[in-house]
Amino acid sequence: MTYVLGRSAPVAGKTDFHRPALSALARLRATNSVVAGLPLLLALCLLWEIAPRLGWINAIFFPPLSAVLAALGDLLASGEMGRHVGISFQRAGLGFALAVVVAIPLGFLMGRYPLFEKATDLLVQTLRNTSQFALLPVFVLLLGIGEASKIAITFYAAVFFLLVNTIVGVKSVDPLLLKAARSMGTSDWDLFRKVIFPSAIPAIVAGMRLGVKASLFSVIAAEMLAARSGLGFLIQNSQLMLKAADMYAGIIVLTVVGLLLNYALVWIERRATHWRQGDGDQPH
Amino acid sequence: MDRITVTDIAKTFTLKPGQFVTVDGRESNAITVLSGLDLTIRKGEFITLVGPSGSGKSVLLDIIAGLTEASAGRASIDGELITRPDPRMAYVFQQYALFPWLTALQNVEYALEVRGVARAERRQRARHFLSLFGLGSFEDRYPSQLSGGMQQRVAIARALSVEPEVLLMDEPFAALDAQTRDILQSELLRIWERLETTVVFVTHSIDEAVYLADRVVAITARPGRVKKIIDVDLPRPRDLDIRNTPEFGRLKGHVWEVLRDEVRAAQKDWALSTASH
């Protein structure tokens, strides 16, 4: 029997000198999506710059990109942007952390014990389908306009993504793995720790990815509606104060933060499920 | 010396509400897969269990493994009643059952970790057993990066690493291609001859059953019990060529003769239960 070692797929970045020159189209296909997407993004930026300058759009409501970037520079230099972003992150982070602490143990119980799930499922489904934004006035009434109501809404936004995915992850454990683990004498506690938990990790991490974004967006919305600080407040307040450039600066920061967060989470997800990567690349 | 004793074992499964099977022309919501099964397995012998589908061979293995409770009768190891998984036994499954998030080495180490073997020793022992199966250079691979044959080698290495007195194997080579199966059978025999472990091996293949066994146990159609035990007096060590000898052919023919009526009965049973749906 022969074993084929290593991967047969071509290695990225390695130049094959014997290959004929690539056509322009083939080269475009080969470039990564960030590079390939840049021209369109730059065109949008250019349009943003010239449209207000040529009077196609009112510059008071829609200042040119350069003015927005200048405002962004000022906000960054004064530390105001950093402060607001920091506050939003703190709220979203606390709410999200609370959601993790509640959802994962609860999800394990619901996924593992059918009777417990039967008893709790209707309540969870009811709460899950109540919008966190509809509950903001309730949170403000009960918890005040301060930090607690913001943390509550981010918690609420994230907790169901985490809960549902944890349940799915726990239920998707291969029964054969449980049987094998039991045959080796694995205790109930180790079964949770060493078999069910690792099996559920991919689903839990996917839930975290959704939950983090939901937390961030919810805190922004909450800050727009009822707050005196945070990125949402900055965006909303700038609009009220007719500081359009500051408002767009806030929106740009939010977009960039969202993008970076998404890439970071994709990276974490890939790390957490790296053992799946070998699929379809097997020696015989 | 007797290692495993199975006495008058029965196992009945109750079906879900609304599900029925036809037993002797009557509808029933319970299905008896084993009934009145007796078997004694001697220390260090290689036993293969053959029988038609549904004759409860795998269930018998689960009962011996302490994973399933018998409805009646008793199973014991070295005279002690089996009530839960016993550290003296290890189990190998048809579908490998490796933890996909652990490397080959970590998978073998897991079995040792559960039994409380210290870190340094379990690494060393895991490496030793992987190298017995020629997997030394694959220890850092994840199961998804290994072929079926290699995954099953890891699973057998994992089972043997705890140095069990009894190795239970449930159709371990059934999912593999014919060549890989031949190779793994020989590898298993080679290693078994060194370790002197008792092996209880369930298979559908009469060829495999005769090639591996000291004794072939033929199980009847459902409800399963022992129909006949055939002694395989082929010399050891055996290599693959032994399959071409007239003696091997004679034994295979004998086992098939014993099983033929049971396979027919099982097919009739199956035909009835499908016709009733």
Descriptive notes:
The complex is a heterodimer of chains A (284) and B (277). Chain A is mostly helical. Chain A has a domain at 79-273: Orthogonal Bundle (MetI-like fold), CATH 1.10.3720.10. Chain A has helices at residues 24-30, 33-53, 65-78, 80-112, 114-128, 136-143, 147-171, 175-183, 188-225, 231-240, 244-272. Chain A is flat and about 75 Å long. Chain B has 277 residues and is of the alpha/beta class. In chain B, the strands form three sheets. Chain B has a six-stranded mixed β-sheet, with helices on both faces. The termini of chain B are far apart. Classes of the chains: A mainly alpha (284), B alpha/beta (277). The interface between A and B is medium-sized, with 27 and 32 residues.
Task: Calculate Rg of chain A over CA atoms.
Answer: 25 Å
Biggest sheet layout of chain A: none
**Shape type of chain A:** flat
Structural class of chain B: alpha/beta
List the topology elements.
The complex is a heterodimer of chains A (284) and B (277).
Chain A: H1 24-30, H2 33-53, H3 65-78, H4 80-112, H5 114-128, H6 136-143, H7 147-171, H8 175-183, H9 188-225, H10 231-240, H11 244-272
Helix pairs in contact in A: 3-11, 4-5, 4-7, 4-9, 4-10, 6-7, 7-9, 9-10, 9-11, 10-11
Chain B: E1 2-14, E2 21-23, E3 26-28, E4 30-42, E5 46-50, H1 57-65, E6 72-77, E7 80-81, E8 89-92, H2 104-114, H3 119-132, H4 148-161, E9 166-170, H5 178-195, E10 198-202, H6 206-212, E11 215-219, E12 226-231, H7 246-275
Parallel strand pairs in B: 5-10, 5-11, 8-9, 9-10
Antiparallel strand pairs in B: 1-4, 1-6, 2-3, 6-7, 11-12
Helix pairs in contact in B: 2-3, 2-4, 3-4, 6-7
What structural keywords apply?
heterodimer; A: 284 residues; mainly alpha; MetI-like fold; 0% strand; B: 277 residues; alpha/beta; Rossmann fold; 2 domains; six-stranded mixed beta sheet; four-stranded antiparallel beta sheet; 7 helices; 37% helix; 25% strand; globular
